[in-house]
Structures are given as structure tokens and as C-alpha cells.
Amino acid sequence: MTKLTLASYPHMLGFEQLERVLERTAKAGNEGYPPFNIEQTSDYSYRITLAVAGFAEEDLAITVEDRQLVIRGRQTDGPDDRIFLHRGIAARQFQRSFVLADGVEIGEALMENGLLHVDLSRSKPEKVVQTIKIRKGE
Fold first, then answer.
1. What is the pLDDT of residue 16?
2. Rounded to an integer, what distance in angstroms lies between the CA atom of residue 7 and that of residue 39?
3. Separation of CA 120 from chain center
4. C-alpha torsion 52→56→59→61, nearest 10
5. Per-residue pLDDT tens for 43-53?
6. Are 8 and 80 a contacting pair, CB within 8 Å?
7. pLDDT tens, 87-104?
8. Whole-structure pTM over 0.90, yes or no?
9. Residue 3: which pLDDT band, with cuts at 50, 70 and 90?
10. Are 58 and 64 a contacting pair, CB within 8 Å?
């Protein structure tokens, strides 16, 4: 069986970078933790919401690395003098990655009721019509 790539389609020119992004996303291997939502808040804005109950603001880091939004969380166990009769809530760490298209910018991040909201916006694309002059060959 032949693997289909974007290069297999002759009318799709210049999409090699998109293919690399898709491969990188597939290899990212995000686990199911923490759960998240992505919502479209307007025609040109989005909100990513992660359920991060138990994490404080200082336990979280949000960075953009090579057009990739990376959200990391690291909890510590806390004081060693605590004695648990049952321990069902473990201190965890996570990393969630989201590939960003060109023109997508990160807005603000807000922590509210155990949810981390990260707002993103995309600039409105301009309609560009370009006329190419045909030169007479010699």
C-alpha cells in the first residue's frame, strides 16, 4: 500500500511544511490528562480550557516554542509530615501541546475555579488579488 502525502497531489503546492506539522502533532503523543476543551469564541478567536484542579498558578507554565503552544504543569507532594489513610489524588505533572497556524497569537491566560483558560486570536485574512504580467518570450 502506498502512503499518500500532500506531495502526491500535484495541485497542492508549498504544503510540505503542513505535512511536517501534521507528523509532529501525531508524534507528540499527548496523554488524556488533563482533559481540555477548545471552543471558537468568534470568527477569529478561540479559547483552550484545561481542567487543572489542584494546580496553582505557579505550578503552571505556558510557552510558545516553534509555533507550538506548550502548557506544562508540575505539582509537588507537599509537606512530608502528612499521613494519608487513603491517597487517591496524586501529585502529577503534564505537558499539553497545540500546533498553531501562522497568524495565531496568544492572548491572555486566566485561572478560574480549577480551569485554565488560554485565549487565542487569528488575524483576519486579507483578500489579495494579484495580476501577473505575461512577458513575451524571445
1. 74
2. 31
3. 10
4. 70
5. 999 999 999 99
6. no
7. 887 778 999 999 898 889
8. no
9. low
10. no
pLDDT by residue (tens digit) across 110-131?
999 999 999 999 988 888 999 9
Cα 131 from Cα 97, distance rounded (Å): 40
Distances (CA, A) of 31 to 25, 54, 78, 90, 110: 13, 18, 24, 16, 23
- How would DSSP label each residue in the chain? -PPP-GGGSTT--S-HHHHHHHHHHHHH---S-S-EEEEEEETTEEEEEEE-TT--GGGEEEEE-SSEEEEEEE-----TT---S---S---EEEEEEEPPTTEEEEEEEEETTEEEEEEEEPPPPP---PPPPPPP-
* Cβ count near 42 (within 10 Å): 9
Average pLDDT of the segment spanning 19-27: 69
Residue 96 grid cell = 499539553
71 touches 83 (CB < 8 A)? no
Distance CA 49, CA 98 (A): 12
Domains of the chain: 1-30 (no CATH), 32-122 (2.60.40.790)
Question: Quick check: 99 and 25 in contact, CB under 8 A?
Answer: yes
